[in-house]
Amino acid sequence: MSDTPTAVDDPGGPSTQGQSRSDTSDTRPDARHADHAGRASSQTGLVDAAAVRNLALLLIGVSLAWRGWIALQGYFSNDDFVFAYLAAVKPLNWAFLMRGHAGHLMPGAFFVTWVLDKVAPLSFSAAVTVSLSLQAATSLALLRLLKLIFGLRAAILLPLALYLFSPITLESFTWWAAALNHLPMQLGMVLALDGLVRYLRTARRRWALATIGSFLFALLFFEKALLIVPLLFFFAAFFFTEGHVLRGIRTALRSHLPLWASLAALGLGYYGLYRATANFGFNYNPRPGPTADLAGTMVGTSFLPGLIGGPWNWVLTGNSGGAANPPDIGRWLSWEIVASAVLVSTLIRRRAARAWVLLTGYVGLDVALLSVGRLSWIGPAIGQAYRYVADAVIPASLCIGLAFIPIIGERLPFAPRWTFVTRRTPGIRLLTTVAGVIVLNLYLLSAGYSTSVYTSRWANNPAKPYMANVRAALLDAKPGTVLLDAPVSDVVLTGWFFPFVNQSKVFAPFRGNVKYGPFTTSLYGFDPTGHLVPQALAGLTTIPGPLQNCGWGVLPGNETILPLPLDVPPLGLTVKIAYLAGADTPMSVRLGTTQVTVPLTKGLNTVYFAMSAGGAAVVLSGTDPGVAVCVDAVTVGQRISAPSQP
Q1: What's 475-535 look like in SS3?
Q2: For the domain 537-641, what is the CATH code?
């Protein structure tokens, strides 16, 4: 077993692929032309390797700084609050980690949210720090992968920039719930590809294990990571074997069967676990019409404009950002540019068509998964949401590179017609370099504009100031303050997220000085801006009682009926009872068919509680033997902010 350095060890230097061990000779691309590959990959470029590395690191740094700034303009939204609540109240056990959520199985994501709750509960800056760390790791790993496959040549800056600045991945980075799925999957995908390339070039078992481990890491966060397996297999079959496509598939399958069998077994086992835990209702027979509309939307309206830096315009989707809504001219232009890129690359590179087939296949799987999943719930418009195709940006970056850039060790990478042109056209390398610089800058300008428009929408999240006021109010409140539970403001969560919409759940991570209970003696609540303020009841009060200085008497063993001036329809109500009790005692309160037992305290007091009921009278009973209660009035209604005192 030789340890002779290969292109794997120094992708930026001259290829020594021909020195690889004999056990890899049948899987290297075009092994009959090793001498040409060495010359092709070792030619001096117009930009040296050190400059390429520095430019790549600069792009990564700029993208991280920009994305971090963008993310911090917004705040948590939607499922984020559900995850934060679960992390705050659930123990770290198997049931919590394997909980299915909206069709997702993501124990890794729940683990991260649990740890974050213990370190920095409901802290958006902490969540963004986690996202930035994953983004940085993925960006550096992608640079290493591109260097490994193509070498440190200036051409890799375009596929790298495609990932770093793609508007397609904006939602899956800024929205915490989506980032928990997508960012680890992207990292796992890149590391799996890196391990695979090293394994194919060296046949060392450790790289096969690294590939498997990276796949498992991605699966911990997102069931969609199952798509990594076909991506790995066809990448190996298309670009690391000899001969035509079918021969390459057979060769890749036969030569590395243990690796594919291991990945397939893990994938099938995970799928069985997913079906047993996520409890998601798939529609395995989607109608052709909606499926075709979905494919057209996902590809023509979302993905292709995104590839050239679109969509330039976004449609609002609540507080989680926006969905692609490009102008017609933008969509048509993206189709023309992508079609031109496909045509030009196939005229230049011998295996360019395979790269486009690989990318098309991956995006097709994205469409297929969505068509059997959420399509029947929402309709084809769901294809405008970029989070459903954000995972395809890594394959897109890789495949665009494969379509234009020779692989290290590749023999005769260019089509004869292009070789003929380059030999007879002085300065062709300079012209292609200039063209590449122009394309890169146009892409950055286009993506920059789309990102700026997105940021203006992402930053407009009213939950951010509201929750900041709530956090301060809960910390400043008098210890022991008891609040009645109620749905949180719609600016934070809507009823769509029932049963997680109550304040006791959404505010649970704050752990302030208040607690939620079924009864309270002082009525406080949150105003529309999130400040804790005194509240009053707007509603109906029972008619005055017949007993002087008592109102309505409630005696043990008897029922006292307090008529209301109007019949109350069944509603979610808050009830106020002003009373005088001779001793501590429970008392039953019935309105219509709903009955609540209320604890009363000796003396002159007031108690508030919630009940869902309706009727024409309030019926009181059930006090302890020997305890008499005087009730001045019972008020039923809705809570409002108390009028300001003069």
Answers
A1: HHCCCCEEECCCECCCCCCCHHHCCCCEHHHHCHHHCCCEEECCEECCCEEECCCCCEEEE
A2: 2.60.120.260
pLDDT at 644: 59
Decide if 610 contacts 646 (C-beta within 8 A). no
| Long-range pairs for 232-237: beta carbons < 8 A, 24 or more residues apart | 232/192, 232/193, 232/196, 232/263, 233/260, 234/358, 234/361, 235/193, 235/196, 235/358, 235/398, 236/27, 236/196, 236/200
The separation between CA 428 and the C-alpha centre of its own chain, rounded to angstroms, equals: 44
Among 96, 134, 630, 169, which Cα is nearest to 386's? Answer: 169
Q: With beta carbons less than 8 A apart as the criterion, state whether 259 and 199 touch.
A: yes
CB 397 within 8 A of CB 160: yes
516 phi and psi angles, rounded to 5 deg: -105, 135
Give the C-alpha separation, 301 to 469, whole Å. Answer: 39
Alpha carbons within 13 A on the beta-carbon side of 84? 26
Task: Report domain extents, the chain.
Answer: 43-76+122-458, 537-641
Beta strands in 74-143 (DSSP E): 100-101, 104-105
| DSSP symbol at 645 | P
SS3 151: coil
Q: Is 8 helix (H, G, I), strand (E, B) or coil?
A: coil
Nearest Cα neighbor of 64 from 9, 128, 116, 155 is 128
Parallel/antiparallel/unpaired status of strands 481-483 and 514-516: parallel
| Closest to 619 in 3D by CA, of 583, 589, 580 | 589
Name the residue with tokens 């109350």: 568
Q: Do residues 413 and 354 make contact, with C-beta atoms less than 8 angstroms apart?
A: no
Write out the E strands in 1-144. 100-101, 104-105
Listed as ranges, residues in the chain with pLDDT below 50 are 1-44, 646
> Which candidate, 112, 137, 108, 138, places its Cα nearest to that of 126?
112
Distance between CA atoms of 498 and 64, rounded to whole angstroms? Answer: 35
Cα gap 182→416, rounded to integer Å: 41
Query: Tens of pLDDT along 4-47?
Result: 333 333 333 333 333 333 333 344 444 333 333 333 343 446 77
Q: Tokens 């297999």 appear where?
A: 233
604 strand-pairing partners: 580
Report which of 332, 389, 326, 324 is spatially closest to residue 359, judged by C-alpha positions: 389
pLDDT recorded at residue 1: 33
Asked if 2 contacts 22 with a C-beta cutoff of 8 angstroms, the reply is no
The separation between CA 405 and the C-alpha centre of its own chain, rounded to angstroms, equals 32
Residue 321 pLDDT: 80
In sequence order, what are the beta bridge partners of 596? 589
Tell me how far apart the alpha carbons of residues 201 and 440 are, in angstroms, rounded to a whole number.
Answer: 31
pLDDT digits (tens, 9 = 90+) for 337-383: 999 999 999 999 999 999 999 999 999 999 999 998 888 778 888 99
- Tokens standing for residue 20: 């690889």
